[in-house]
User: Fold these one by one.
Assistant:
Number 1:
Amino acid sequence: PPVTTRPSFPAAGGPPPDAAVLAREVRAGYGRGRSAVQVLRGVSFDAPPASITAIVGANGEGKTTLFRIVGGFHRADAGSVRVGGLSPATFRMRHGLGILPEGQRFPPGWTVEELLRRTVDLAGVSDPAAELERAVAVARFDTTTLRRPAVRCSKGNQQRLRFAMALVGRPRVVLLDEPFAGLDPPSRAAMRAEIAETAAGGAAVLMASHDLNEVSRLADAVFILRGGVVTPASDMSAEELEALITGEHT
């Protein structure tokens, strides 16, 4: 069966040097007529290379919809999104994206090592053995964990596996949906370091997270998604971000 976590598929020659994500007045909704729900009502932001851009907000505000549009899996009703100067779907097909989806399930029966090997094979990297070794190092898995079926791993190990798979092929655009979900403190610290290193290596990292402490600690730019639009909220503490999200900010 195919790997359910979407790996990156880098093309020969690699992506363009400027892999910025540019969103302008993005609108999107679901349903028709009286049942129509407008989720995004004009979202605009930049996620430049070599940086971490965070989108935060309450459940149901449209973060996952926005990420699906940026990833090229859902079309916006209006507005535009460009990734590396291309449409999201074109960039993904030509150059690949690193995607960590929230709660993505693994196919039964596949071990952690088999999933990592499959992801490396699909990515078409020049040195599969070295890339597999790097993926294992990113996930910080020991031999016992590598041989365990992924569906029988702890939530934390499953999340670390998703992250390692997302980074295979060193994608220049990385989308992380709740990357810290289910992680214990050591794994959280390791994830934080890897995200920072990924951005330092030149990638445009776009992250959605309810963990406002990690957001305020990691992100170079923060946008609050509320009521279908985004508001810049950089250089704020976790408490200040929470007050804005909940509407308690004075």
Number 2:
Amino acid sequence: IWQIVTYMFFHGSVLHILFNMLFLWMMGSEIERLWGSREFLKYYLITGCGAGLVNVLVQPRSGIPTIGASGAIFGLIIAFAMAFPNREILLYFLIKIKAKYFAILVGVLELVALFLMPSAPIARFAHLGGLVVGYAYIRRKHLGQPVKRKITEWHQEASVLASKREAERRARQQAEIDRILDKINKQGISALSDGERKFLENQSGKTS
């Protein structure tokens, strides 16, 4: 019975553990800071055990060993997507994609691979189980509400920061307008450079 826990700590190759630990570092560190170490560890073990249990229930007679932390990692993917839905991540280190779309993408790809490559030695049901168990756990009120509250706080902080930056931008524009007008008063409009003329023209067409 203990194999439902210990299977998570075995891997089939260096690349297998490398990619799992990369996601654990990238997404797990953010979730741990958000929830705290105790809640994070509990979530990681629950999704990992749940993923293994789903795989056993769906494929009780499978002769392929199920090893690796991928089920728990897929749980972290859905947790990250729910906590930071619009956070951009680099797919294959090249393509920017929002976390919520990334979670949907990996789920769809696992389903497609399940039907197209049913005999592949990969525990697809463990991956999908990690997503489902993670989503169900986060939807619980005691965890879902703090996540929503934290996201609301971040949105408010972002709004305040955006307002501050806009005020600073307007102040810089007004200072530049004052400088140019002062130059016109002292040297005449013919002393303006092309850039200064264009700046005044652009500002004259805007309303505050």
Number 3:
Amino acid sequence: MTGQPAIATRTGAHALLAALESRGVRHLFGIPGHGAYPIFDALNDVPSIRPIVGRNEQGNTFSALGFAWATGGTAVATSVPAAGLTNAATPLAEATAAQDRLLFLLEHDRVHADVLRSVARYHRVVEDAREIGPAALDLLDILESGRPGTAVLEIPNRLLNGPADEPPDRSPAATPDDVDASVIAEVASFLAGAGTVAIVAGASALAANPASVVPTIAEALGAPVFTDGLTRGIPPDDHPLAMGHSWTPGGPAERFLDGCDAILVIGAPIAAGQNSSTWDNRMVVGLRPPERLAQQLVLVDWDDRDQAGVPARWRLRGSVPAIL
């Protein structure tokens, strides 16, 4: 949904909610308290956005992650500053590691910076009431068209409570550049013509919400699907091509991958512990030499951040849902 909302913009908090409403946000997870009061007060004038109130910041923000995971969309949450942020730090870190889309709204405090460097993928502080709406929309754009994770928007209390102008006209949400259709056709031809194909799905694929797309591709190629701990269930465990989180170094899954003519790698599979946010490419490269990987691998991801050093036959970078 785009365009101007039907509510009056009186304070910075109203400007923030107007921006969220214009992009179809209908739920705000959070706990009222100092710093968050201006946002919850403004919610009285925005009946289209429903507050989801929990008993503590950690549980409430994990609920927001469940919403993002289930819908494939972006969850929006808030908390009080300082202790509220540290209480929410675990789900914020989890959203970045699992690459779920989470926009976290917070009253600005200088003590936040060190915490946010560890848990957030994107972070922005606004210093002018006129920046509030555009900043929120910019972060939503980034989450929807770039690599998912936690995006934190900090707004000083004086701006949330102070007067704000009507939000400026804005074009619809940004969309990522399309991958060249001829390249997609070449990759599709390569996969369709390969004798034995496998799919390896990682955390980015989960954020791309490909619950129906991945099984469709797997069935078309007759390709078993191996997942990491964060993407188990794509496809469902009872699907005949679902291999689940069964890869081990030198094990049966690795021996099978070694014999494949083509391996479609969706996202960034993590071979280490399932809660690790550190890229560990063992699941993708196994024990195979670089020249073998350069024949087999088709890498699909939002960008090349995690796979720049991995040899591949094809690298498709951009919106994962669009590529799939």
